[in-house]
## 1
Amino acid sequence: MIGLTVFISASAALLLLLLFLKPPAESEEAPAGLPDRAIMERILAPEDARYIAGLRLPRVHRMFLRERRRLAIAWLRANRAEATRLFVLHRRAVRQTRDVSPMMEVRVACSFALFMLNYAAIVGLVQWVGPFGAGAILRWSDSLGAAMERLSRQLAASAGAPASGTIPG
Amino acid sequence: MRTFTLTVWWAGNFVLGVLLYRGLRSRLAREYPVFYGYAAYVLCSSLFLLRLSLASRHTYSVGYWVVEFVSVLFGIGVTWEIYDSILMGYPGVRRMGRFFIALPVLVLFVRFVVELADQPLQVLLPTTLELERNLRLGLAALLIAILSLLAYYRISLGRNVASLLYGYTLFIATTVATLALRSALGAAFQPWWAVLQPLAYLVTLGMWCAGLWMRETNPLPSPELERDYERLSRQTIAGMARLRARLAYGVRS
């Protein structure tokens, strides 16, 4: 049964590759430019959120959050487009290079995969808890990380330091 | 069923004849000698098998599997010719191709050695059907590696080589699936096999005939400056890391 699955999977993989193999579009390589960080700072401005919350109009508040979520995701997508363009340019440039190293290519592909993983996690977080909630979670995870790092440094320092009361020699 | 088989057989031979004629007229036979050699072999073997079918069933059966085995060997040559023709102007992708093609070969070799360690050699000897199925699976693995490289490095294909690749991939995909099902289900699958296999073959011949009707040159990549690969790759990795940090920083701010 496993053997049959291998053969059918190979056959399906071939047909799928044929279906998804499309001619390269040169327009994808046109630089769109990175969106300014200040735009995201403006989207997530706490004073805007405070002002809208102060109005005590739930419908307006919901609209505001929906709009800010949409804008935040658009900003994130623009960054993803830039990463994709960079990756496409790399692959285009190395096609004709003689000294390509498979290991280096795997590293480049992994760095892109890592970016996409981060992107998916952050977009998921923004969709789930909204851009303000996502920001709060990321700040919290930062402070948690910093606390863990301090703790591990302290533990390392105490383990490395000579214990008091040991008899020398 | 017999009428269907005969119709497909004659239609296949007719299209093969047209394909060979067009190959000679358009001088494509010089550009793809292994492929046209394969097409000529298939046409001759088809007529040879017709002659054998008039003799005993056993003689035909032996002849059929011998013809199929040689056809698989030709298939390896055709796959190599497609690979060579597509990646002519891309030395970097060729290098990656050698690496990715070596991987499935290595996996199959390791599997063979592991199985040999456990069982006596006689148990490993497959039937003719299994042997053809396994060889076709090897070809499928090679084609998967080639198609993945084309998709990853976004390589443009000319009409001729695209029809060669697409047609052959379709043929191998259907052959691997039908041979595996024939081997697993036995005689119950025979009527389906008798229909699916010739039909897939006929569709493949149609694709080849349409795509190889006239000669079209393969699009060559624009000559680019030789770059420092190591530096370029490090810059890409650093760029990705900066963009990654930017994502989190943007939402955190």
## 2
Amino acid sequence: MNIAEHLPILVIVIPLMSAVIIPVAGRVNSIYSWYIAVAVTLSSFLVSLSLLNTVMDTGRISYWLGNWEPPWGIEYSIDYLNAYVLVVVSFIFFIVSLYARKSVEKEIDSSKITAFYSIFMLFVTGLMGIVITGDIFNLYVFIEIASLAGYALIAVGKKRNALMASYNYLILGTIAATFIVLGIGYLYMVTGTLNMIDLRDKLPMVYESKVVLTAFAFFTVGLSLKLALFPLHAWLPNAYTYAPSVVSAIMAATATKVGAYALLRVMFTVFKLEFDLQVVPVTKILIALALVAIVAGSVIAIAQTNIRRMLAYSSVGQIGYIVLGAALVNQSSITGSLLHILNHGLMKGSLFLVVGAVIYKTGVEDISGLRGMGKKMPFSMAAFTIAGLSMIGVPLTVGFVSKWYLALGALSADMWFIIPIILASSLLTAVYFWRIIEGIYFAEPVGAYPAAVAGYGKRKSGPKGSKPPKSKNSNENNGSFLKDDAPLGLIMPTLVLAALCIVFGVGAFIPVSVAEQAARMLLGGV
Amino acid sequence: MEAVKSAMPLYAIAVSLLAVVLIGISGKKPNLREFWTIAAGVLKFTIVASMLPLILEGNVIEYSLVSILPGLDIAFKVDALGMFFALTASFLWIVTSFYSIGYVRSLNEHAQTRYFMFFAVALSATIGVAFSANMFTTFVFYEMITFCTFPLVAHKGTTEALKGARRYLTYLLGTSVAFQLFAIFLTYNAAGTLDFTQHGILAGQGSDALLIAIFVLFMAGIAKAAVMPFHSWLPAAMVAPTPVSALLHAVAVVKTGVFVVLKVVLYIFGVNLLSELGVGTVLAYVASFTIIVASIIALRQDNLKRRLAYSTISQLSYVILGVALLTLSGITGSIMHIVLHAFAKITLFFTAGAIYVAAHKTRVSELDGIGKQMPFTMAAFTVGAFSMIGIPPFGGFLSKWYIGIGAIEAGQLPIIAVIVASTILNAAYFLPIVYAAFFKELPAGEKAKRREAPSLMVIPLTITAIVTLALFIWPSVFLELARMAVAGAM
């Protein structure tokens, strides 16, 4: 048998096995666990790319686990939608793994590093599994794997608050999982099947039944909790704020996106379009919630002083965009929603990685900690600026592309009033990002840092060295190539994500070509 | 008319972006760094000017850089109107560069490298706007100008400078995102394209209500044109160093605003459609209001740069007024006013900067007798002021003449009264300065000794003053370009 035929299962098996191997290898030297994590995430990414390539060439891939024929056996079903999401998610895993080494050494007890990578691989397994599976119970299993791993990842940091944040997430996450499994149970009760495509065929006969309606409600609420749709976002800010930097980056860039993917799957694959549009007013409710999320997330973000919490609330708003695109249910809007899964992953991933680098260098998490950083950490701050502008939605960045499609989607759906809300949220985003960007380049750095590094804060002294404007002469500053910036291991991955914000902003047709196909597929049947 | 495919417009834009890199890496060698600025300026002007013959023969030059999405292309098209603007901006960049060098070195300004880098980016973006082939490209460069001029406006880094710069950004970014982008969405949704086309793309593409809404959104979204009530960013931006105020807030930024208004009126809507909708007249009266009110406010400003800023607001609305009349002469006058006001106003800003550098004076009330100390500077000021007022033989007369004729053609006689009133107001806020400078006594304790600013500043302002005069006598190239642009659009 050809190995290429088994690529779908490799997406799951490789990270799963590595979760076992890492603790063993880590006993020899904890650095091996990092090597393995990088190798695993890289291979996941390559496999995902290859799957996407196959889907583009030959259409949907159906992989039968243990060769059991669906609907009896578990099927891994890969089409444009999940191939796309797999590539996005696995790429971010890979980039963040590259970044993880130094940051993890700093933020996590050395005795826990091996365990961290092992759990990280379980988390990868879970999220990749959610995306690849075509079986709804299997989906639940992977949601649980990812969630349990997620609780542990959040709690692993040195901060005590992390335990509280993790516990909160655990409670809400468990409620969500319960809802989802109840929904699955009800669907199984009326149809006797767990295969998504099979469900799609069998459900229309019982669309009007109370059981199916209840199941759908359970799914919607459960998944909304998972993807932190306002007002079910309560777990998210603390989780992102107190988790180790690497974990915040992964969670923000992948976990909620996968939640959004699951919602799309349930809405458009398990259930048919007419159910969403005619049987229950779910799209109207989701549009309303998404719009509230978009505005509220941005407004609350403005009020934050902790930069990670600010980014977290910003995520709440951005998730609103993704849900909005899905709920508007047309070609442009769903394309926009899918693009935003990638685009927001790149932007927010990059931002969290920059914050991680600043914490690495200075230990400061307050927004004021970025003041005057433009000349001390020029590369990290350049990445922050690019990603920040992208969040605002400046043209030629990815943020603009998402908003373009969402706006066209709103017009296609005859809901022009959504556009002012999108634009207003862009301006609110500009308020909280520009405040920071301005501080980075135009403000004086704050005094002492908790974790100041030797040689930090040295400045070329001149006759007018004490005069504030003089020190802004960043280009006249002597110093090494990196100046006082974080090590290359932290900078490079950050810059890659930031650069992609521009690459896919200018070369938008690359992700768009896939996202459009996926949207067409979601709207037009399987 | 023939469309020539050529990458020249791209080179014209890219040359100053390349200079940004060179300026950045030679930050420690000021002379080399300034050489790059000047070289890029000269090269840019040469490239722009080299396209002139083709344009004058009635061709357009097209170049498509990249297609981001279907309907969203970064593409360039050099036509008479764009050439008109690009020639003005790129020529004035050279002059301003010399002036900037004199200014920042005399005052020993900080962060000079950053200053010259962002200046170069701003010019790239300005030429980008001039040569845009569609509204999306225009929007990209429009926003680029907003962002890359922020560091220039906030240059001093003081609380006051940052406050002014924030207001600048809030107005320009706020309106462009909230209104202009909204209008772009609606336009694309209605017309299916954003390309600038000879007689507009929106005719018959939607209900009158929708088209009027789009027009209002566009006009509100182009705050760089500083039409009231979206004008207050301009006085706030006067915290910038004077060369920045001169080039950006007399030419690049504000002229980008009115230029985009022209493009929207001529190539998105088209003159015919706007006449049918009847919104031109409304715009003409909004512009008239701005002309008069801004002039009255200018009267009351004691800070010289602020007085010039309000004068700019007033003069920009002449451009808007001319185009809003939707007649041949009106639009010609409007286009001519772009270049005529640019040279006169940059001269005035240059003199304001020269006075600040040489005498450390910023207020109108301090200028008594300064003509004895700075005769060249104040002579140039007088030329600029007379051109603003519109006295022949100074450039400003021409555009007012055309706009006046345009008003008669459109049957809007009240507009003539507006022009007359504004001329009187202009005289009222400029002539006292000229009078005080030359005929009043110096304050006690100051000697009538010659103390001009460095020649790197005085020569540029003399040149722009001479051009202001020359444009009245030989307006031919610009007038020809303006006529071609109008002929194409009518």
## 3
Amino acid sequence: MKKELLLFFVVCLVLFSCSGSKDKSKRSVGVTLSGAGATFPYPFYSIVFRDYMRKHPGVTINYGAIGSGGGIRSLRDKSVDFGASDAFLNEKEIASMGAEVVHIPTCMGGVALSYTLKGVDSLRLTGELVADIFMGEITRWSDPRIAAENPGISLPDIEITPVYRSDGSGTTFVFSDYMSKVSPKWNKVMGKGKALKWNTGLAAKGNPGVASVVQLTEGAIGYIGSEYAFTLQMPSAILKNKAGNYVKASLKTIAAAAETDLPDDMKLTLTDMPHPDAYPISLMTWLLVYRDQAYGGHSKQEAEVLVDLLNYIIGPEGQQLAEQVNFVPLPFQAVQKTQRLINRIHFAGERISAVPDPEIAVVEFLSTDTVTDHQRKVRYEKSITNER
Amino acid sequence: MKNRLRMKDRVFKGLLFAAALTILILTAGVVYVLIKNSLDAFQTYGFFGFIFNAEWDPRSDSEEYGAWSFIIGTLFTAFFALLLCIPFSLPVALFNGEYFKGRKISSVVGSVVDLLAGIPSIVYGLWGFYTLRPIVIQLGVNASGFGIFLASVVLAIMIIPYASSLSAEFLSMIPNTVKEGAYSLGATRAETIRHVSLPMASSGIVAAYILALGRALGETMAVTMLIGNTTNVPSSLRDTGNTMASVIANQFGEADGLKLSALIGIGLLLFVITAVINLIAKFIMKKLAAG
């Protein structure tokens, strides 16, 4: 009996001390933001959120990489403060959201066509060839049409194994968007979407799944997020772009795809872009937030932190982190336009002024009004590359 | 004092009752949610229309979902795995339940086989991916190695412990007097096994294999890594395909609307198939106990 009593007290003590410490931590945590969505930018988000939390000890940010579709659903249900997606919302989705949603681009990336072929270090392909390979029209590496693009390279006479995503994915969406643009047949037979109906090849789950299947299968070719291909240093095909140049996926060529007239709402696809250096399968990824932050028990403080976080992500520090994990920083013009979008976020009509005064400048460190746009751009780009 | 004891007894009984009831409610809840959320798909295509349709097209403008290719993929891999596992699990069962019954060596072999059951599915998947697949390619099954064959081989290894330990249990339950009778009639050990032990334990062994089959049907992770995940009705061991559990695991994340409903419908069908198989095993075991 005595023993039991003692045990009881010990258990109580442990419980009390637990709840006590929990309370304490709760008090020190000022604001908790949660988001959910795309898996593609997850490596970037995980480090940029961690970095932000380190600089703002009162803030906790949780991000669930559950896929773009899940992110949009969660935002609509108001169970998260921001969603994330690799494809901007279509008309139907916009209508279902109930209120205006702002798309905040955070970084760019590409879709690389990685392959495994012994002795082939450089492989040139055109969009149409890629389409025919993934539709099962071209089945061997020795096909004369592939050879015609690769003079001087001896391609082995083995079967091509196309590898695609088994899960729904923004990467598939961007890839098929490009395929639809360059191959009328693809547009008719395959179409575009986060998941397609395939007739050939193999499927694997996620970028890691596709990457490992490609790496271990002689003769395989698969589309994977460029940041993944860069990190693993996988050999990737050089693609012919709209201007007729052969370009390799790199931070530079993907950035070149965004050298165009950007729309004010920043909703655009970057596939098959006309810039001479543009990598043809480039993409932008977005965070989605409600323009009016006064909803579902949101406090103004939460809205302020959210806006500050968005500014941080598109600011030089955030963009530099993007580059560290092989994503492509937003070009200057995009940052400028995004800044304007962030400034439009309000709290029941009240302006949310986070750290920098929104009227003055693009980003905090550029807030001198005498410099020209070009000078700002140069400084911005310098600040990203120098701080590495 | 007596009253207090009775009181304790009653409380204990109540607790047990509550625990048992919770399990029942949970199961009923799972079934309810599966039915409720898959209703959309079953209503759109009809019950049999959904089951027997081999089309799986997730594109939004030509959406169509049918479970047939996954049902075939599931049954194909599970039954082939069962076939592959018999030559390994039956000898192990005889070894442990007959020849070396109660000896130290049998407990060692028994625990090692049981250890196979404790290895996480993902480890089997990795092993199949990195070790077995190159061998399958060299055997010339297909160019990439992935497919029904590879998935079935790994599944077979995964279900060996389930089939063999239960079979060994049933074999060792045969009374010694019966076997001694056979020996005294001049039967050799092999003849005794063939004509006495195996027939007597047969229904128990069959039940063991059915339970192992049930396990193979629901296996997800290892299969998903090895089967190729393609949407087609597999017609040979060389083909790639997909199973019901694996398609759910793959596509659940981004699914929405009708697709989500169809995936949950596949979950319901899988639930029904495994439940039926378990019921058959139970029925056979019951018959054995009665006989």
## 4
Amino acid sequence: MMTIVFSLFLLTMLVIVAVAILRTDNLFTAVMLSGIFSLIMAANFFILDAADVALTEAVIGAGISTVLFLSALALTAEHDRSPPVGTWVPLLTSSALGGVIIFATFQAPRLGDPNAIVHQHVAPWYLEKTPELIDVPNVVTAVLASFRGYDTLGEVFVVFIACIGVMSLLGRVRPRRESIEEDEFDKRTDNLRHHLIPRVVGKMLVPFIVLFGLYVQFHGDFGPGGGFQAGALIAAGVILYSLVEGGPRGRELVPEWFSSMLVALGAFTYASVGVASMAMGGRFLDYSVLSHDPIHGQHMGILIIEAGVGMTVAGVMITIFHAFSRRGIR
Amino acid sequence: MELLGLYNYFVFAVLLMIGLYCILARTNIIKSLIGLTIFQSAVFLLYISMDKIDGGTAPIIQEGVENQVFANPLPQVLILTAIVVGISTTALALAVTVRIKEAYGTIEEDKIQEMDREL
């Protein structure tokens, strides 16, 4: 009963925050509200028994997405100057869409119905066969990394290509020694070095965030977590350091050649596991042949590809952030 | 009680409406992109709502606990990766927006169209 009340409260909050985002003219407010929106959404996912998704949404939606939007705002405009006219057509279109969907939901199975069609086909098979074929406690990791490894490989390459797109749009200047004096250096970059509390607290948090990221990476088979969450967490730690100390010092911590190399190396690691399993007589991304014992092979395959996913995601997030922050100093 | 079980879907529909309205009615590109992320989140909410089973728990198998009911892992896998892909594509869109600002000096769609017409 408590869960239902809490769930209703969170869902209502979601709608309120979304309306507030729509109404505000200040883009800074809108971006901050969208961070809150993502955090409430993460809490909602947690109530709906999706621990892995909640972790991902909290790191990416509330954390990295907000930072990226703010970096884009710093380079564009702070106010939304949309004219107030011509709102009839969008209003009509969106209400028509909403009306049709609400009408359709009356046919949908109610929340938590165990006889709903989604729970009848392949999902019970995954839950039943995971202990026997893969033997990792977290079924989400098993499905993500092994049963549906092709999908995940595709997703990793989509992220990889998006990163290449951002790099080619915002430019990646050849790394050169930045020989500017300390004072000039601080003046030219927006950072929090002169604010004592964010600087001390922020820097203290960075190692713990990265440590937690590594825990999530290697504990992903047993609890909520995995490469996607871990990569984003580690990137969040590096981004926090860059925000506190300024972009140039962040680029000293993780140089751009290193982060862009991580992007390629991660995707390469993932694909080469597939090729290796083909070379050892199995199918593409069939980890069972990697070791003499099929289950041991599965464990090994999942560990390696999760490491690849983590490297790519961390690299992509750091590279994109650097691309935006470097654009600012020019 | 019957309607309470559909509340998640209603919120999905309302968020979808808000997101679509934000994309269509606002000419500011960044505001439209925020609308797009709301639209996207609404779809995520729909998928995750479908995975819930009454009395269930997160799909992590524990040793020595019998007769557990688990939530459906499949929608979770799909949405987990979709969130990461979503942020990458949003970043790409933001990069395009930054280039538009540099080329036109504004990120309002109507002003950009006027400038294009003058050419």
